[in-house]
Each structure stands twice: as C-alpha cells, then as structure tokens.
Amino acid sequence: MHLRPVTAADFPFLLEMLLEACNWDGTPWYDEAQVRADDRAWLYLADWPRATDFGVIAEVDGVPAGATWARLLTGERHGYGYVADDVPEITLGVSPAHRRQGVARAALSELIAQARLASYPRLSLSVDPDNPARRLYESLGFVKVGVVGTSDTMVRDL
Ligand SMILES: CC(C)(COP(=O)(O)OP(=O)(O)OC[C@H]1O[C@@H](n2cnc3c(N)ncnc32)[C@H](O)[C@@H]1OP(=O)(O)O)[C@@H](O)C(=O)NCCC(=O)NCCS
Fold first, then answer.
1. What is the domain extent for residue 129?
2. CA–CA dist 137, 81 (Å, integer)
3. Based on the structure, what is the number of domains in the chain?
4. Is the minimum distance from the CB of 136 to ligand 1 under 6 angstroms?
5. Which residue minimizes the CA distance to atom 17 of ligand 1?
6. Is ligand 1 within 6 A of the CB of residue 18?
7. Measuring from atom 24 of ligand 1, which residue has the nearest CA?
8. Which end of the chain is more exposed for a tag (fewer CB within 10 A), N or C?
9. Is 83:120 a contact under the CB 8 Å cutoff?
10. The domain that contains 8 carries what CATH number?
11. Per-residue model confidence as pLDDT tens for the chain (158 residues)
12. Cβ(23) to ligand 1 under 6 A?
C-alpha cells in the first residue's frame, strides 16, 4: 500500500468514495446526480479542491483503493459532523474490493498526522452507530460528542 496526498485530479475517485460513504450500508440511497443535488452531502466535495482541503489517497498496485479527506465548513453551511469553523470534517471510503486490509486505518492515521502538522485543534466526523467504521474511529481516538439525526458526531483531539 502506498499513501500519498490527495490532489485536484482525484476528484472522480473522491466522488466514488463519497457515494460509498452515503450508501455505507449497501442501500443505494444516492447516485451521482442525487448526491450532487443534496446541498448537505455535496458540501464535502463542492468546488473541489478548496485552498484548505487536505487528504490522503491509499493506493494498492498503483490504483486508488481508499481515500480520506478533510474540509473546513462553516456554522452557516456545514455537513453532518460539524462542530466548529476551525475543525475540519472528515470523509472516508474504501473500494469494496480493498476492504478489511487495513486501508482505512492507514489512510486515516496519516490524515490525523497531517491535521496535527497543520496545527488544527481537532478533527470531526459523522457516523451511523451501526457502521463498522465507528470501531475504527474509536480505536484511533475519536470520541462521541453529540447526535445529529440518527448519526453520532465524533471528535479527535490533536
Ligand atoms: C468503513 C470502511 C472505510 C473501512 O475500511 P477498511 O479499509 O475495510 O477498514 P480497515 O481494514 O482499515 O479496518 C479498520 C477497522 O475498522 C473496523 N471494521 C472495518 N470494516 C469492518 C467490518 N466489515 N466489520 C467489522 N469491523 C470492521 C474494524 O474495527 C477494523 O479494525 P480491525 O481490522 O483491527 O478489526 C469501509 O468499509 C467503507 O468504505 N465503507 C463504506 C463507506 C463508509 O462507511 N465510510 C465511513 C462513513 S462515516
């Protein structure tokens, strides 16, 4: 596995991973047109890349296998895991063929390191309590700080 910073050219793969995150339980809630039309979900990729966006692509055999990226949002326009204007919110997805091989753990650990280097105070995210990703987040030090709808908001101090 090779980890590298995300670039502007990764947009198509990030879109794929955003759809994996939106459809995390296997139900096809969103296709590309629906995610683009959903004001809140699309905030994670709208105008990609913004100046403060950062993230990690995990490649296996030279091909993107997973991605995690973080974006600053505002109190006025934010996603599901927003906690503050200076706390980037994370999106994470791994292609089905590459799951259960440590891709998400490696990529997210690197994202946390990047965020710390950039002097952000915290990272945040939103996750359904039934999503197995929740266990990964807990093991990497994220703690639940609230509930929005049916999902938990989790925060990692840096
Ligand atoms: C969740 C997801 C990112 C995990 O990616 P992955 O590369 O398979 O995860 P890893 O192999 O690094 O596993 C890390 C930990 O996550 C947990 N985990 C991941 N998938 C799991 C599963 N299917 N069942 C149980 N635990 C699981 C485990 O705690 C695992 O640690 P362990 O291997 O020490 O048991 C991937 O399944 C995915 O893309 N799902 C759809 C998108 C999504 O849900 N994104 C997160 C939205 S909040």
1. 2-157
2. 13
3. 1
4. yes
5. 136
6. no
7. 132
8. N
9. no
10. 3.40.630.30
11. 999 999 999 999 999 999 999 999 999 999 999 999 999 999 999 999 999 999 999 999 999 999 999 999 999 988 899 999 999 999 999 999 999 999 999 999 999 999 999 999 999 999 999 999 999 999 999 999 999 999 999 999 99
12. no
Q: For atom 23 of ligand 1, which residue has the closest CA?
A: 132
Angstrom distance (rounded) from CA 142 to CA 102 = 18
Contacts 24+ apart (CB under 8 A), 10-15: 10/55, 10/57, 10/64, 10/67, 11/45, 11/48, 11/49, 13/57, 13/64, 13/67, 14/45, 14/48, 14/55, 14/67, 14/69, 14/91, 15/45
Return the residue whose CA atom lies nearest to atom 16 of ligand 1: 136
> Is 0.90 topped by the overall pTM?
yes
pLDDT tens for 43-58 read 999 999 999 999 999 9
